[in-house]
Design a protein that fits this description.
- There is one protein chain.
- The chain is α+β, with helices and mostly antiparallel strands.
- It has one domain.
- Helices cover 27% and strands 39% of the residues.
- It is built from 1 helix and 3 strands; from the N terminus they run E-E-H-E.
- The chain has one helix spanning 30-47; strands at residues 2-10, 17-23, 51-60.
- A 3-stranded antiparallel beta sheet has the order 2-1-3, covered by helices on one side.
- Strand 1 and strand 2 (17-23) form a beta hairpin.
- 12% of the residues are buried.
Length: 66
Amino acid sequence: MLAIFVSACLVRDPGVCREFKIQVDAGIDSMTCVVQAPLQFGFWAKEHPGWQISRWRCGAASENKI
């Protein structure tokens, strides 16, 4: 199972950054994850106002770090 790992920083204080994990649908492959990830960012941004994504990647959902 894959997840999208996001590193995001506060818009008002770019020195404050945090890592987030977005779960994706079970059964998708890594290429599909990469293609669909940008579509998830809009939903993520609505749930995390004030944060700006600085980097991201797809990886195994069992991982804990970007």
